[in-house]
UniProtKB/TrEMBL annotation:
InterPro entries: Acyl_CoA_acyltransferase (IPR016181), GNAT_acetyltra_N (IPR042573), GNAT_acetyltra_YdfB-like (IPR027365), GNAT_dom (IPR000182)
Coiled coil: none
Location of the N-acetyltransferase domain: 117-248
Domain of life where this protein originates: Bacteria
Annotated source species: Streptococcus cuniculi
Highest classification ranks of the organism: Bacteria, Bacillati, Bacillota, Bacilli, Lactobacillales
SUPFAM superfamilies: Acyl-CoA N-acyltransferases (Nat) (SSF55729)
GO MF annotation list: acyltransferase activity, transferring groups other than amino-acyl groups
Signal peptide (UniProt feature, chain positions): none
Entry protein name: N-acetyltransferase domain-containing protein
Length: 248
């Protein structure tokens, strides 16, 4: 296994995943190949994309050096999907891909922001809030691909949280920042779910992104996220299989 420069390569040319296309074009993440450069692993944030020929030994080598903890494995290649399906250490689930354009209605989104429950308010992510996001399991992914707020801000990261009586109840953030787009990361404290917080936050994030002329890409982790995206104006492309380590 060897690490090569992050760039658009033939193995990914036919891929439809927005994260892959935007990530490679922006030079983000890390790209690995086998010695013959017939198989490739693209490590981007919490995702690992597998292209080219499916090779069990290649994936094992990556796992030994970098691990798969908190990684979501995705491939559009039949040989890789067959290999992942046969791996007993992984569980398969369904994600949902959306187009990199959407039918946003500004007035509707503004109304959704205003529909936030009276007990809560939306605040932008600042240095103090960014630090707090790392203190709880449900919110840690909201810090995106960075370790410090300074790095987050320098890369063009931004986001918002819902706060009630000094407590962060939900948040939305830039999981990744591309050249003209962002990858949305959204999460809600389990104690505050199904109260419309994510919907108001998502509307706020879309409006802020439009003002910045950055398209807010959405790739849904589950059906609830898919339904929310469709309510906001995103257009579904397809459901697709993804994999992650089984919990012990």
């Amino acid at each position: 296994m060897k690490e090569i420069a992050v760039r658009s390569i033939r193995a990914f040319e036919h891929w439809q995943k927005n994260m892959v296309r935007h990530g490679l074009a922006s030079g983000l993440g890390r790209l690995f190949s086998d010695d013959s450069e017939r198989s490739f692993l693209y490590d981007l944030g919490n995702f690992l994309f597998l292209a080219g020929e499916g090779q069990k030994e290649f994936l094992q080598c990556y796992t030994e050096h970098h691990g798969l903890e908190h990684k979501i494995l995705i491939s559009e290649e039949a040989s890789w999907q067959e290999l992942l399906n046969q791996d007993a250490s992984l569980k398969r689930f369904t994600r949902y891909a959306f187009e990199n354009q959407a039918d946003f209605e500004i007035e509707h989104l503004a109304q959704l922001v205003q529909s936030l429950p009276q007990y809560a308010e939306i605040q932008p992510i600042d240095a103090e809030i960014y630090q707090q996001l790392q203190s709880e399991t449900w919110s840690v992914d909201l810090k995106g691909a960075w370790q410090t707020f300074s790095d987050f801000e320098t890369a063009g990261g931004y986001g918002f949280v819902v706060v009630s009586q000094g407590r962060i109840c939900a948040g939305i953030s830039t999981g990744l920042v591309y050249k003209r787009a962002i990858e949305i990361e959204i999460a809600t404290d389990p104690a505050y779910q199904r109260q419309g917080l994510a919907r108001s936050l998502a509307a706020k994030m879309i409006l802020a992104s439009c003002e910045r002329r950055m398209f807010p890409l959405w790739d849904a982790h589950n059906e609830a996220s898919k339904n929310l995206a469709e309510q906001l104006g995103y257009r579904l492309i397809t459901a697709y299989p993804a994999y992650e380590e089984r919990e012990e």
